[in-house]
Amino acid sequence: MAKLDILEFPDPRLRTKATPVTVFDSKLEALIDDMFETMYEAQGIGLAATQVNVHKRLLVIDVSENRDTPLVFINPEFEIIEHELCEYDEGCLSVPGFYETVSRPQKIAVTATDRTGEQFTVAAEGILATCVQHEIDHLDGKLFVDYISTLKRQRIRSKLEKEHKKSEIGRASCRERV
Ligand code: NI
Question: Is the pTM of this model over 0.90?
């Protein structure tokens, strides 16, 4: 298994619309395992393939307290069961350090396939419903910061751009020392 690099806002590759998974092979298995390792290490509750620069419709999620309930959703789609909205302070591994309140339908039915290509449907509510919708947004090139005001989004963008510049300078000076 290997830890993968996570793309960070405002990286334009996060805006790519992912295409369906059609081949269920050992390469896909390896990608799923690497995504779980990356998500657990980053202490996230969900990760979309888009975030690791693989533009296929695949999500890994674990919203359990003990981090022992890994869920895989391939080619996921959802239907709203309960239109009532639920508010969560959402964060994202691609927008590190920022949390904003987003409202989404609180109960959904998710249809997807598992890692063997078998289709299933599950009801999801609360944090799982929020997480699935947040991750499916990633597959469509959408981020939670798209739901907040332009002003707030710009502020997050410029702060992260500054961080990225700093870490690039850090990397360059490391190279010089070698
Ligand atoms: Ni995210």
Answer: yes
